[in-house]
Amino acid sequence: MNLRLNTKIALCLILTALIAGCAGSGDIPPWTYVAANRLEDFKRAALEGRTAAAERHFQRTVEETKKSGDLALLGRVYLNRYAVQTALLESFDDEAFQKIQAAHPDRGNAAFLSFLKGDFHRTDSGLLPPPYAAVHKVLVEGQAKPDINQRARLLRLLGGTPDDLTRLIIAGRLVLSGHEEEDILQEALGTASRQGWKQALLAYLHRLQILYENRREHEKSRIVGEKIKLLQ
Questions:
Q1: Which value, to the nearest 10 degrees, does the dihedral of the CA atoms of residues 45, 47, 49, 53 take?
Q2: What phi, psi does 121 have (nearest 5°)?
Q3: Is residue 197 in some structural domain?
């Protein structure tokens, strides 16, 4: 299972469930393209702050995916939603996913959910895609034994993640897990700015402003606050 969550991977994720069924027909069912495209539309709209549009696109993705009858695939659609919410530093309600998981358990899906929730000791890193598995390893090692190099290791992994949304998801999980360092926030801000993800940009700017206030760097906090006002 791959949950890198970029356009190509999302399409392959939807199509994977149909490879066997399509092998002899030469036709790829239209729902696969609709679901994959609406999923990408959802992610883009959510990250840009177009909430109503994001919800419409997500519901369309769910309805199209249900046509397959594949509950593991449907669970991954919800994981996409939770991952975006994590990237936006938002909490999420996983009730829908848990109902799917109860009816059709999937270890890979469960592992990724545990990572997104910050339940690192309950996460099987062997079932995570490589970027998440690498970060998970550093986090678990840091919890077991103090590591003065942990921050540098995490930042190196974060900066070396090639996919922007994956990088932002990891940054979000790090911040939500207490790794709210300036360099991690700046990495996330650079990613959001480059992609034009306004909602994400504002979320990390707010966190940066709070960080400066807590460090009593009032001038830096004021400058960030002015930037937020201009962007809102």
A1: 20
A2: -75, -15
A3: yes
